[in-house]
Write a structure and sequence with these properties.
alpha/beta; 263 residues; 8 strands; 14% strand; Collagenase (Catalytic Domain); two-stranded parallel sheet
Length: 263
């Protein structure tokens, strides 16, 4: 796949506005018993030593079903890095979250665990979950959030608002594609959430994010200030530094902490 570049004008505009809180919920680095923290099931995904299959459980409010391209892209990106010889399956469930229009990280976490089809670590299958609820995050700049070791949420209303009116701007579908992969990248521990990369590619002003505009983990991908984009494409794949970090964690060359399962 050809590299996708964010144009300089886009980057300048995003640097003015992007928020630190776009990807992470409150108390993100506090493990909550078996819920863990983003990255807490990294090795469970990368390795096939115990978990030989994976289910991506997507619970969506009526009218908020994710785009098929987002589902397909996420599955592809996980297949590229997670060793699951028995396959990765997507489970779509229309869900009434019975939640007000404003969501906090605790709301996402609590509703997710109420509606999980099973424990994330069930027999030889790993379950990761994405919520697509109605309404938006308590911080209006947030398009998506990772709240524990197995759970993310994508706020489609905010994604669609970020699309904007200009013809050459990334579409809401393209934004959703990138944001969904980005949040699952955090479940994989990127960047430096449960390890320390031997390569300096974490943005010093945006912890947990890449400083490379060609990585889907680039810090600006998270923010609703994508509405300032005039033209250009968003990154939707992990860069070489991301991939090398994942390979290093799997091989044991890079120490990994805060894991709910170790091979």
């Amino acid at each position: 796949m050809a590299k996708k570049k964010l144009l300089p004008l886009m980057l300048c505009m995003l640097m003015l506005f992007a928020s630190l809180s776009g990807c992470f919920g409150n108390n993100i680095f506090i493990a909550e018993d078996k819920k863990g923290i983003p990255g807490g099931l990294t090795l469970a995904c990368l390795s096939s030593a115990k978990y030989t299959s994976m289910v991506i459980e997507i619970d969506y409010e009526s009218g908020y079903m994710p785009e098929q391209s987002s589902i397909d892209l996420l599955k592809t990106r996980l297949q590229e890095v997670c060793n699951k010889p028995n396959g990765i399956e997507v489970l779509l469930t229309e869900t009434d979250f019975e939640q007000s229009s404003s969501w906090t990280a605790d709301d996402v976490r609590n509703k997710a665990w109420q509606h999980k089809s099973t424990d994330p670590q069930t027999d030889s299958t790993l379950y990761w979950q994405a919520l697509f609820p109605a309404g938006g995050y308590s911080n209006n700049d947030v398009l998506g959030v990772a709240v524990d070791a197995s759970t993310v949420a994508i706020f489609k209303d905010a994604v669609e608002e970020a699309e904007g009116p200009f013809f050459s701007r990334p579409s809401a579908e393209e934004i959703e594609n990138s944001v969904l992969v980005h949040e699952y990248g955090h479940l994989l521990g990127l960047v430096n959430l449960v390890y320390k990369s031997p390569v300096d590619h974490e943005d010093e002003d945006h912890p947990g994010h890449s400083n490379n505009e060609d990585s889907v983990m680039y810090w600006a991908v998270e923010s609703a200030d994508l509405s300032n984009i005039i033209t250009g494409q968003l990154p939707d794949e992990f860069d070489n530094d991301d991939l090398n970090d994942l390979a290093g964690m799997l091989s044991g060359e890079i120490p990994v902490r805060d894991q709910l399962w170790m091979p």
